Amino acid sequence: MGVVVILGTGGTIAGTGPDPSAPWRYTAAQLSIDQLVSAVPGLAGVPLEARQVAQVDSKDMGWSVWQDLGRALAAELARDEVDGVVVTHGTDTLEETALLLHHLVDVPKPVVLTAAMRPATAVDADGPGNLRDAVGLVRAAAAQGRHGVVAVLAGRAWAGAEVRKAHSHEVDAFDGGGAPALAETDAQGQWPQAMPVWPAALARGWALLALARPPRVELVCSHADADGWLVDALLAHSRSGSPTERLRGLVVAATGHGTLHQGLEAALGRAEQAGVVVWRSSRTAQGGVLSREGDRWPAAGPVTAAQARVALLLSLLSPVA
Ligand code: ASP
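# aspartic acid complex -> structure
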């Protein structure tokens, strides 16, 4: 049996609060990854190693944490004795990190993100069960030859390129944006003996994280009265700032299947003329925006707007053929 490595990055799963029956009053990212692991009795006897990579509330996630996580993942996944890696994370930006890792992981091993909606001190904390399920999934995946990036919460595993936070406060908060779960635990908390093949990670490699700063890509939304004022303000600010801070990309969370308010569309045209790459995603919860003949701007596919921002900045670093 190989080793499962658990990398801690913070989040509510590592959060603590003063009152176990008031789980909404807490501070994220307080407990160490060793403390989290030791609170899960179901992990005794599993060959585990735990490392603290970061300690952040994931609402504050950013490039430098992704660089640290990338370095740690590259090192652990390269070890022959490691079957796979679990990453503990906050729920707020889990979908962005999951999509980033889906693009970058370049070793055919399972990488399983997990999180919690309630802090570790809550009477009904969901973190310990999610962590047990995530470790169990790495072991099941390694035994069945499954690999790729997935996220596990509330007994279900979602593809890293599809997962998203779909509810702001329920414990069962994640879904696949319309795509089904890859697997579910049974009543005993076991993963299926024969899981479907997971979507393979895109193996674009960790070198994409090398720059000290990523290209600046911002997110705007189409909505009633969206007349492009915000886009023009971004362009004016970008022109007056330093060349390294220049706006390089804009993802628009469009209405429906990628439609735009005409005022915003005109401003996005001005952005494009100024050299900004424009991609369309959707502000709807499911489906995203698929490419259609005659599209003025590329469609980001089924991912969320926040995930599309990550995909666009990676594509500015290294265009996909
Ligand atoms: N703000 C927290 C975080 O994303 C929320 C959570 O983990 O549920 O780190």
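# post-check
The radius of gyration is 20 Å.
Residues 127-144 form the longest helix (18 residues).
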